[in-house]
Each structure stands twice: as C-alpha cells, then as structure tokens.
Amino acid sequence: MKRRVLMIQEAMGGCGRHVADLIAGLDPERFDVTLLYGATRMDDYYRETLPALSRRARVIPCADLRRDISPRHELRALLQTMRLIREVRPDVVHCHSSKAGAIGRLAVALCGRRYGVKRVFYTPHAYSFQAPEFSGKKRLVFTLLERWLSRCVTDLTFNVSEGERRAALDAGLDDPSKFEVIYNGIADEPVPSKAEARAMLGLALAGLPDDAPIVGVTARLVDQKDPMTSIAIAARVIERRPDVHVVYVGDGPYTSRMEAYCREHGVADRVHILGYRADAERVVSAFDVYLLTSLYEGMPYSLVEALRAGVPIAATDTTGNDEVVEPGRNGLLFPVGDVEAGAAAVLRLLDDPMPREAVVGSFRDRFTLDRMLETISAHYEEAAA
Predict the structure, then answer these.
(1) In the record, which residues are listed under signal peptide (predicted)?
(2) What per-residue confidence (pLDDT) applies to 385?
(3) Is-above-0.90 flag for pTM?
(4) Per the CB 3.0–4.6 Å rule, which of 63, 88, 208, 309 could disulfide with 285?
(5) Distance CA 271, CA 75 (A)
(6) Dist. CA 257–CA 351, nearest whole Å
(7) What's residue 203's pLDDT?
(8) Looking at residues 55-83, what average pLDDT do you find?
C-alpha cells in the first residue's frame, strides 16, 4: 500500500529546489505525494520545475501562503490546509520553511491526528528567528512559536545543517533527539568542462580571453546574500588583479544598485550581471573561484554545485557555509561583511588554486542526492508502517 505524503512549502530558493528534488526522487510505487505550495513567491526555477512536479505529485497552489505577516491570508491558508488534510488523510505531513511550517503544523494541531496523520516532519531551511532583519520582539515571538510547534506538533525536524540544528537547540526549541541533520544533496552527475561552460555563457562573455580568471556567483541578489558586500569585494579584487572578471548569475532587487556601483568604481567592463539563467548549476564550471557573501544560510545549494564542479569557494563564515567549506581543502571562509578579508580570500584562491580532485571529493563525501533521498524516504516508510 502506498504511503500518503502531504508536503507544504514556500516555492522558492533552496526550499523550492529541495522539495522538487525530493518529489522527483521518491518512488511513485511507494509514495503518493500531494504538494501544497505558496503561489505568490515562486521564483523562475520553481516555475520551470512545476510541470515536472505535476507529473509526480498532485500539485495545489495556495495564494494565501505568503512571507509577509497577514492574519487574513494566514487564516485562509490555514483553512485550505485543514481541508486538504481531511481530504487526503496523509500518513505523513512534511512542512518546509518557517511560514509553511507554522501553517501546516498548526493545521495538524487543529485537525488532531484523527485524519490519519501518523508523523509530522519539518524542514525549516533556516529558521525565521535567524534572520538579522527581524527585531528583538519579532525574533522572540518567532522563537516561542517554533518552540510550541516543535514540542506539541512535530515528531522530527530535519535540519539542513549542523549549524541550523545548533540554533534550534540554543533557542531551547525542543529535546535534541527531535532534530536530525540531513544535508541538501544534488545528483552526482557529469558537469561541463571549464571550456564548455564558458561557451555556454556565449555572448554574455564575448571577447573574454580564454585564460581570463573568472570569479563567479550564482545566487539571488537579495538581502540575505548581502550583494553590496559581494560587489565591493569584486571591485577590490579587480583593482588588484585587472585581468579578473566577475560574473553574477541571478536576479533580484539589488541589480540596479550593483550596476551603478560598478559604473562609479570603474569596473563595469569587468563585472557581468547576467540575470537569472536556468543553467546556473552547469555554468558554474566556468568559474575559477566561487564567491558567496551570505548573512545567514540553511544549507546553500549553490556552494554544493560549486564543489561538484570542482570550483573552490570563498564564502562568509556563517551557518551553512561553514559546513560546506573546509578551509584548506575546498575553499576559504571570511567574516560576514568584511570586504578586505573577502577580497584577500578570493585572491589567495586565484593565486594558489586548490586541487580539483580534493574539491570534488568533498562534495561526494557528504552532499549527494542519493544520500538525502535514502534518509528522508526511510523516515517516511517508518512513519507509515
């Protein structure tokens, strides 16, 4: 008999990628999946993935599952989720991201377990109380809500990094036995060579010398990624190494500010902001160094993709990043917001490249998709036994 799984999620970023990979990898002979997703914040990746998801699961949009706090929308999302639980009668409810985690788990609490729910799992993809933009009062409210939901509704939380798990324990959310680290994984499959990846970028880098060093970023240009620190690091690196080019693959609200910064600092001809590309995880092979300046993370897919491509990483020393980057083996860490240290890390990796075999090996040790799928599906099986 198939296990019925209801997933509830926000449809963007690493959370969207994680759920898409999970649904694609679950055996359809063993699992019957229903997915309720927030329809208002879909990014391009998720929008392009949606048709494939629809072939593997029953997919239901929820226009009221939003990031911003809105009691009216949250009540509607809660009622829609409760109706779905009564209809599907899932063996497993698995909630992804803080907002979906609150709505989904509260729906289970209000429905009780009388509609067949045997286990409730939660993957935060970075807790809301970790975000630096929230005030002390909001952070306290989010912490108390997470604590109540964990203790009263959640059977097990899957943290995507040990740092995220430590944050949960430091906040006193629940007993340590109710948290398990399951790293985000990606498929261990061949990637383009550096020459092939540069050719894939095509006209975007037309005229660039074949031997020009490229520092690359594949990330959304949003607050969490601290793009203004990233662009300042780019300018500092180019000042010291005029042969270097910096490539951004991703879009977001900071694009125009970054372009203006490049013009003001005379590096517009060396910095290429290409916008969103569906092939981002493949063109990363074109880079000599990968740069990420996040303020906080859960477990960033972009870093794992860089490792698979054999590209060493210069990243901020923050939760998530510090578990992917092994200084001396696959990259270097530097303090959050520190432009000088970030530039120094990038320049060091350019001047003294790390062996590709060591970088790829650090991916295969911990971050394969098969490892992630085996662990989560085993929990689903156990819950529905």
Answers:
(1) none
(2) 67
(3) no
(4) 309
(5) 45
(6) 30
(7) 59
(8) 92
- How far apart, in whole angstroms, are the C-alpha atoms of residue 317 and residue 308? 20
Domains 3-183+368-384 and 194-366 are alike in CATH topology: yes
Mean pLDDT of 339-345: 98
In tens, the pLDDT along 15-52 reads 888 999 999 999 999 999 999 999 887 888 888 889 99
Q: How far is Cα 383 from Cα 3, in angstroms, rounded to an integer?
A: 9
| 3-183+368-384 CATH choice from 1.10.10.10, 3.40.50.2000, 3.30.310.170, 3.30.460.90 | 3.40.50.2000
SS (H, E, C) the chain: CCEEEEEEEECCHHHHHHHHHHHHHCCCCCEEEEEEEECCCCCHHHHHHHHHHHHHCEEEEECCCCCCCCHHHHHHHHHHHHHHHHHHCCCEEEEECHHHHHHHHHHHHHHCCCCCCCEEEEECCCCHHHCCCCCHHHHHHHHHHHHHHHHHCCCEEEECCHHHHHHHHHCCCCCHHHEEECCCCECCCCCCCHHHHHHHHHHHHCCCCCCCCEEEEECCCCHHHCHHHHHHHHHHHHHHCCCCEEEEEECCCCHHHHHHHHHHCCCCCCEEECECCCCHHHHHHHCCEEEECCCCCCCCHHHHHHHHCCCCEEEECCCCHHHHCCECCCEEEECCCCHHHHHHHHHHHHHCCCCHHHHHHHHHHHCEHHHHHHHHHHHHHHHHC
DSSP β-bridge partners for residue 33? 5
Domain ranges of the chain: 3-183+368-384, 194-366
Whether the predicted pLDDT of 87 surpasses 90? yes
Measure the CA angle with vertex 228, ends 227 and 233; round to 5°.
95
